[in-house]
Structures are given as structure tokens and as C-alpha cells.
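=== RUN LOG ===
request id: a7f3
mode: sequence -> structure
chains: 1
length: 179
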Amino acid sequence: MIITLILISVSLAMDAFSVSVSCGCKRLVKKQYILLAFSFGLFQALMPACGWFLGTLLGKTIATYTSWIAFFLLITIGAKMIWESFHDKPTCNPRGKKMRLGAIIGLSIATSIDAFAIGITLPILELPLLLSCLSIGIITFIISYFGISIGRMIGSRVGSYGEILGGLVLIGLGIKAII
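=== RESULT ===
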């Protein structure tokens, strides 16, 4: 259970990592490192709770198909992450300028949509909600902060590779769900 939860948390954080690297290469104002990473972590933690609620409501209706639903959602999200890694990401801001709060929230929502869908699978995978949300949020915060730092050092070349890896892990978890 813990390994599955960590793999899901790290995989979900790859979207935020990719955008964080992009933001870091734009030379964010230092104070915004923590704000951006916190916002990514917060939204990544809240979205699975929303998805979990929906999954719990529909749980009795879809109980016989749970493995296939988890498979479909995880494969779809993983494939989407891989596909998006080859396309342009939203950019943050010009070098050294402060990001507006609206831009930070917009990026946070955009990178956490996948976490909502994963939340639907949490009851199916029998993962505890609070532990899952905490793990996803904390790991996303750490990886996002690390991504901003990497972006400052090496630019945006690394971000898409992390997203590809995250997508592959989710596909692997989807296959595991039906085996």
C-alpha cells in the first residue's frame, strides 16, 4: 500500500515538476519559490479528496467494474501525461518578474486535474484518503520546490522527462490494477 501511494504521489507531482522547472528557468522572485510549490502541493492534495468523494458516491454502482475503471483511468492519465510532455506547457512569467496570484492558482489547477481522477481510484485501490492526500501534497511540494531550483540551474530541458516517467508509472499501476 505505501509503495503504491508513494508511486502515485510522485507520478502526480511530475506535472507540477515540469511546470516548476519552466518557472524556475524564468527566474522567479525568491519569495515565490515557496508560494508556488505550496500552491501546487495544496491543489494536488485537495483534488484527490474531491475525486475520492465522487468515487465513494459511485462506489456501490460500479463495484463490479472497479479494477477496469482503475485500469482505464490510470492508463488514460498516464498516456495524457506522456502526450503533454511533447507539447508546450503554460509558461510562468518573464525573467525576474513577480507572478500574480491568479497565475499561480491557474497553474496549480491545471497541474492538479489528474489528481482529481486519481482520487476516484483511491477507494478502488483501498488507499486511505487522509494519508493519500497528505502524501500527494507533501511530495508535490518537495518536488515542485526542487523543480524550481533545477530550472534556475539548467533550464527547461529536464521537465518533460519527469512527466514521461510519471506517465509510465501510472500506466504500470493501471496494468497492476487488472492483474
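=== NOTES ===
Residues 2-178 form one domain.
The CA atoms of residues 88 and 160 lie 10 Å apart.
=== END ===
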